[in-house]
């Protein structure tokens, strides 16, 4: 199964959704200090789908934490032009004692929505991720792929609810959300994510170490060096199925191998 959903620039108007200028992050001090990120310059437009690609330990997740305001840069400037971003992780992290619907409603409740309003919105989001009729099931009654769909719906609920309250679009931060799934389920959810992105116009910053996944999903692929992570190169991805991007896959894979090899040396 290969997605042929077009990548569109239709939503990319107005102020940037995200701007980083000279951003760096160092943990600790003195001889024990570890610099995770150095001199990151990056801009993401509203509604854009950007993949951060790099080897393990290059600072991809650290960068998402900075964007989410879970940590602060050591140096540089970071500006988020959307509503407060929401996170989707490798594990669904659903509350096991709540149903799928109530897991989604919780994000809406925290945003101040009333009971009837959040029930309607939760059902809309369940339909968006193709889980109609599954709202009353608890996480243990759902497959791994279905739990990730609920997690996606919850993340969308959080960022869109805050965005509506603030009158600004939302942003979704995704930290290797499909890495723990089997190949077939991962393929299906990649297709579903593209469909949901097209339907909502949400800005997405997606972390992966998989070149194929990055090319399949993103409008733009940003390669980070090994630690300390910095932007090595960016590629714009055109429309069409993966078969049309063989040369691009080869080029990005070769550059990633160079980055890993230079770090190991």
From TrEMBL:
<dbReference type="InterPro" id="IPR003439">
    <property type="entry name" value="ABC_transporter-like_ATP-bd"/>
</dbReference>
<keyword id="KW-0067">ATP-binding</keyword>
<dbReference type="GO" id="GO:0005524">
    <property type="term" value="F:ATP binding"/>
</dbReference>
<feature type="domain" description="ABC transporter">
    <location>
        <begin position="18"/>
        <end position="253"/>
    </location>
</feature>
<protein>
    <submittedName>
        <fullName>ABC transporter ATP-binding protein</fullName>
    </submittedName>
</protein>
<dbReference type="InterPro" id="IPR003593">
    <property type="entry name" value="AAA+_ATPase"/>
</dbReference>
<dbReference type="Pfam" id="PF00005">
    <property type="entry name" value="ABC_tran"/>
</dbReference>
<keyword id="KW-0813">Transport</keyword>
<dbReference type="InterPro" id="IPR017871">
    <property type="entry name" value="ABC_transporter-like_CS"/>
</dbReference>
<dbReference type="InterPro" id="IPR027417">
    <property type="entry name" value="P-loop_NTPase"/>
</dbReference>
<keyword id="KW-0547">Nucleotide-binding</keyword>
<dbReference type="InterPro" id="IPR050166">
    <property type="entry name" value="ABC_transporter_ATP-bind"/>
</dbReference>
């Amino acid at each position: 199964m290969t997605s042929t959903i077009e990548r569109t620039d239709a939503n990319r108007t107005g102020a940037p959704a995200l701007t980083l200028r000279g951003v760096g992050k160092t943990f600790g001090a003195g001889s024990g200090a570890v610099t995770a990120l150095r001199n990151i310059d990056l801009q993401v437009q509203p509604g854009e789908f950007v993949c951060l690609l790099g080897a393990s330990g290059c600072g991809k997740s650290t960068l998402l934490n900075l964007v989410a305001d879970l940590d602060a840069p050591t140096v540089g400037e970071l500006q988020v032009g959307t509503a407060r971003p929401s996170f989707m992780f490798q594990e669904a992290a659903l509350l096991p004692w709540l149903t799928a619907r109530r897991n989604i409603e919780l994000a809406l409740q925290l945003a101040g929505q009333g009971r009837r309003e959040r029930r309607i919105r939760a059902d809309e989001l369940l339909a968006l991720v193709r889980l109609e009729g599954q709202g009353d099931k608890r996480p243990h009654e759902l497959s791994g792929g279905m739990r990730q769909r609920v997690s996606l719906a919850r993340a969308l609920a959080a960022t869109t609810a805050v965005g509506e309250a603030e009158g600004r679009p939302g942003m979704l931060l995704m930290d290797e959300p499909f890495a723990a799934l089997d190949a077939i389920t991962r393929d299906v959810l990649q297709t579903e994510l593209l469909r949901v992105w097209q339907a909502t116009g949400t800005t997405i910053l997606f972390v992966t170490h998989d070149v194929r996944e990055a090319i399949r999903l993103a409008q733009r692929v940003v390669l980070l060096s090994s630690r300390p992570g910095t932007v090595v190169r960016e590629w714009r991805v055109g429309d069409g199925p993966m078969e049309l991007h063989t040369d691009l896959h080869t080029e990005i894979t070769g550059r990633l191998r160079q980055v890993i090899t230079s770090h190991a040396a």
